[in-house]
Write a structure and sequence with these properties.
With 122 residues, the chain is mainly β. The chain has strands at residues 4-6, 9-11, 17-22, 31-38, 45-50, 57-59, 67-72, 77-82, 91-99, 111-112, 116-120.
Length: 122
């Protein structure tokens, strides 16, 4: 079953967006959920990840302090709150699930959402 990513859009620099990743049938106590992004002509890069159960969260250096990942197990949903957005944050954002632990390698994630476009522009 695919994950379902949503919440992207067009926002001005300095603005905020909250992305949602619904993970039907994924036990968040036993899976890590990560947000990756891919800009045109660039490789997919990990932005944030939250480990299984009460495990730690990890962030891309450029996202640290601006983005926050959280989960609601009752809704099988992981959120990415993005504040102080910059034009370089423009990309398609994908969420993926992996067994237990976060990884920076997209190949470690077995399920993906369809992607949601984030555009930061004035």
């Amino acid at each position: 079953v695919q994950l379902q990513a949503s919440g992207g859009g067009l926002v001005q620099p300095g603005g905020s967006l909250r992305l949602s990743c619904v993970a039907p049938g994924v036990d968040l106590d036993h899976h890590a959920i990560a947000w990756f992004r891919q800009a045109p002509a660039k490789e997919r890069e990990g932005v944030a990840c939250i480990s299984n159960s009460d495990g730690p969260a990890y962030y891309l250096d450029s996202a640290q302090g601006r983005f926050a990942i959280s989960r609601d197990k009752t809704r099988s949903t992981v959120y990415l709150q993005m504040n102080s957005l910059k034009p370089e944050d423009t990309a398609v954002y994908y969420c993926g699930s992996a067994p237990y632990y976060c990884s920076s390698f997209p190949s470690n994630y077995g399920r993906w959402g369809q992607g949601t476009q984030v555009t930061v522009s004035s």
